[in-house]
């Protein structure tokens, strides 16, 4: 059942100007306050769209007039994680090359990868990371270019000028020289190919490679082979004193450019969309100033950069899978999962960060669901870090409860007593949290639960057999509050 339908069924019926009073046959439906408001809000944009392209004014699109933020001693503007995603989208639409500067590990590559995957989905194509795909997969990509959206991540500092022109084909019996191109260049030359060519570590490329890149940027050609119009060229380079040889301005002037800065709020928003482990996201939220991109005293020590936390997220998924397989097989291990997580986190993000992260994980484990529901009136008095931990804990409980409910379909009366108790508890928790934390909780639920599980939860909470007062409060108070958040 769709969420909008649940809200409609749960809302009190308004007929003939009074609640629960039948309307006369001649009564005509009146516009609701919401529809009037939407119409008023839409009018400026409708008027703008009715103009020709030359008649548009900046005011037609709204928004405040902001200052241009400059990065320290350069002439370059700054990117936040959120604005970088927007500029990538604009660059992809216009095919204007984009150059992203930033400190090592700040997440330049990760944002581009996340954007590539989202764009592939929006283009109804299968996303493939060229560097991570198997040999068999790449053969299929080359044979069927119209099926895929490819991210081709090329390390500019490892390129040679000869890489652009290909390798001599010594087996050819022709009287003239034939060359064989790299697979990624051949793929990009196909008319139906689509994707992003990402040149990373651009400012560490040799002068000869940089000269060869003029053709790539100016002529949209690689070694004399034109690449498809559906490809965006993006590049990244580290910014700092250790890089003494700047990229020639004649090359950078062909790009739109900016500097990505450490912006914890923007990264958290990006990380949630990119599927970074929910425990990492929740931990960073507890104290972004200390848990995000805090540089160590020794520059060689690991610290929690976006790159390292993305790696940690992947490693955690592998650890959970490995320990889960061992548990299924009835095997025990001498190293606890907490020890394994702590060691992995320390290697990637530093010992101090890892200690706090593991303490946060143990905090989640210490929750007693029944006690939380019993003391639900005191939730808003808890500290911010405990509430973030609570959100992760509650979402995990709901995932387990709804997993067994998927099979029963619309038969909400067949929900097990244990699952019904968890769902009722979540209804009480939501109703007693302040609006900000209730929305944070349900935003995580929407993001973490498969769509079918979320629909099962909403069906039960709206129509299931549990405490009548709690159910009515959820229907009348919580459902309307969640309407915009949970709408598809």
Summarize the structure in short.
This protein has 488 residues and is of the alpha/beta class.
How would you describe this structure in keywords?
Rossmann fold; 488 residues; seven-stranded parallel beta sheet; alpha/beta; 10% strand; single chain; 52% helix; two-stranded antiparallel ribbon; 21 helices
Give the topology.
Blueprint: H1 3-10, E1 14-15, E2 18-19, H2 33-49, E3 78-79, H3 81-94, E4 98-102, H4 108-122, E5 126-129, H5 135-143, E6 148-155, H6 162-165, E7 167-168, E8 179-180, H7 183-188, E9 195-200, H8 207-218, E10 221-222, E11 225-226, E12 231-238, H9 249-252, E13 256-260, H10 264-274, H11 278-286, H12 288-291, H13 306-328, H14 337-349, H15 351-365, H16 369-374, H17 384-403, H18 417-432, H19 435-448, H20 451-463, H21 468-486
Helix pairs in contact: 1-21, 3-4, 10-11, 11-17, 13-14, 14-15, 15-17, 17-18, 17-19, 17-20, 18-19, 18-21, 19-21
């Amino acid at each position: 059942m769709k969420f909008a339908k649940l809200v409609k069924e749960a809302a009190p019926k308004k007929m003939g100007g009074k609640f629960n009073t039948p309307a006369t046959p001649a009564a005509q439906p009146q516009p609701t306050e919401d529809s009037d408001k939407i119409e008023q809000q839409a009018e400026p944009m409708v008027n703008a769209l009715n103009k020709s392209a030359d008649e548009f004014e900046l005011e037609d699109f709204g928004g405040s007039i902001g200052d241009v933020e400059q990065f320290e001693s350069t002439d370059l503007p700054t990117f936040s994680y959120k604005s970088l995603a927007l500029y990538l989208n604009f660059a992809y639409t216009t095919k204007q090359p984009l150059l992203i500067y930033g400190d090592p590990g700040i997440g330049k590559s990760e944002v581009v990868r996340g954007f590539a995957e989202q764009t592939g989905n929006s283009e109804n194509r299968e996303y493939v990371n060229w560097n991570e795909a198997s040999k068999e997969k790449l053969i299929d990509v080359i044979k069927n270019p119209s099926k895929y959206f490819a991210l081709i991540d090329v390390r500019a500092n490892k390129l040679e000028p000869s890489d652009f022109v290909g390798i001599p084909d010594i087996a050819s019996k022709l009287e003239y020289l034939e060359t064989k191109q790299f697979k990624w260049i051949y793929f990009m030359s196909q008319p139906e190919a689509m994707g992003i060519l990402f040149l990373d570590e651009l400012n560490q490329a040799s002068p000869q490679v940089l000269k060869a890149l003029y053709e790539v940027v100016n002529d949209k050609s690689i070694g004399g082979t034109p690449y498809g119009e559906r490809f965006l060229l993006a590049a990244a380079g580290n910014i700092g004193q250790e890089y003494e040889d700047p990229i020639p301005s004649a090359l950078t002037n062909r790009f739109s450019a900016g500097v990505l800065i450490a912006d914890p709020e923007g990264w958290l928003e990006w990380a949630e969309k990119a599927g970074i482990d929910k425990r990492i996201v929740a931990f960073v939220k507890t104290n972004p100033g200390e848990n995000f991109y805090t540089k160590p005293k020794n520059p060689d020590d690991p610290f929690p950069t976006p790159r390292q936390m993305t790696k940690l997220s992947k490693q955690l998924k592998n650890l959970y899978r490995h320990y889960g397989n061992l548990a299924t097989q009835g095997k025990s291990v001498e190293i606890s999962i907490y020890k394994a997580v702590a060691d992995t986190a320390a290697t990637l993000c530093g010992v101090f960060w890892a200690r706090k992260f593991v303490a946060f994980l143990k905090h989640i484990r210490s929750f007693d669901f029944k006690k939380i529901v019993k003391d639900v009136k005191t939730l808003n008095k808890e500290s911010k870090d405990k509430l973030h931990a609570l959100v992760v804990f509650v979402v995990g409980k709901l995932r387990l409860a709804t997993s067994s409910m998927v099979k029963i379909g619309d038969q909400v009366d067949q929900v097990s007593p244990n699952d019904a108790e968890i769902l009722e508890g979540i209804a009480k928790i939501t109703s007693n949290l302040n609006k900000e934390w209730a929305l944070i909780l349900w935003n995580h639920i929407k993001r973490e639960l498969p769509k079918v599980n979320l629909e099962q939860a909403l069906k039960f909470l709206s129509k299931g057999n549990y405490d009548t007062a709690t159910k009515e409060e959820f229907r009348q108070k919580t459902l309307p509050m969640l309407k915009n958040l949970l709408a598809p």
